[in-house]
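tool=predict chain=A
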Amino acid sequence: MKTLREMLAEARQVVPEEGPEDLQRRLKSDAPPAVIDVRDPDEYRDGHIEAASNISRGFLEFRIAGAVSDPTTPIVLYCQTGLRSVLAAKALKELGYQTVINLQGGYQKWAQSGLPVVKDVAMTPDQIQRYSRHYLLPQVGDKGQRKLLRGKVLLIGAGGLGSPTALYLAAAGVGTLGLMDGDVVDITNLQRQVLHTTADIGKPKVESGTRTLKALNPDVNVIPLPTRITVDNVMEIIKDYDLIVDGSDNFETRYLVNDACYLAGKTNVHGSIFQFEGMATVFAPNEGPCYRCLYPSPPPPGLVPS
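tool=predict ok
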């Protein structure tokens, strides 16, 4: 009978190993690999790589086809320290999977390298029921819903664009919403700015907006920011958010938000409307042009109505 050391040596002869930084580069590439965490479910819940699906070692051969149907798809396996996963990777090679890589040092080395990890929090029965329709969507499911609950989105503007955006993000279960607007509710806002009601006239928009969003979904942590974004506060404000939604109504703010997002490496979701026309664009740093790339300079004051 072979010893564990012999089995590990055999596996390492046929299974290549790559470090955490290598996996990080693969995940950011145009063709990211399938990442499989072969630890037990309780280990996975305590902390895992966000891109990973959990198939514990004892079920791997039976369930891998459901997670990776194409044997040419690159697969990266990991466990806590890289021992279980290298044996598991050898088993997948024997099943016919062509490119199987073991994460050297496993999850432990990934976490020690300071790379991002995810810790799952148990869903309450109310949450499971509230988001049940998302679980039916393969593009969301349980994993996607948990990612939404961990998400942090900053909404710049609580007006005609920010209002419906905030409502739908809150309804979907985005965990933290920063609501930024320095204005108060005016009666002329009410035919389109659906965060606010007649009773809110004269009150700060972030106050009525926060109340409406919390009433819609108590799960959401709404952070009211009753101020305008400026060159002095923009970098400090956006640093804590995963995504910035720019619903501002002036070019000065649009260019400021664009430049700050570019410098901070934040994705900027931009929208603008005029009467019955509108546009929406996603500006992701290093993945395409930015707002200033498309429109190098703002139009002269007064040429384009807000």
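The chain is about 40% helix and 15% strand. The chain has two domains: 4-112, 151-294.
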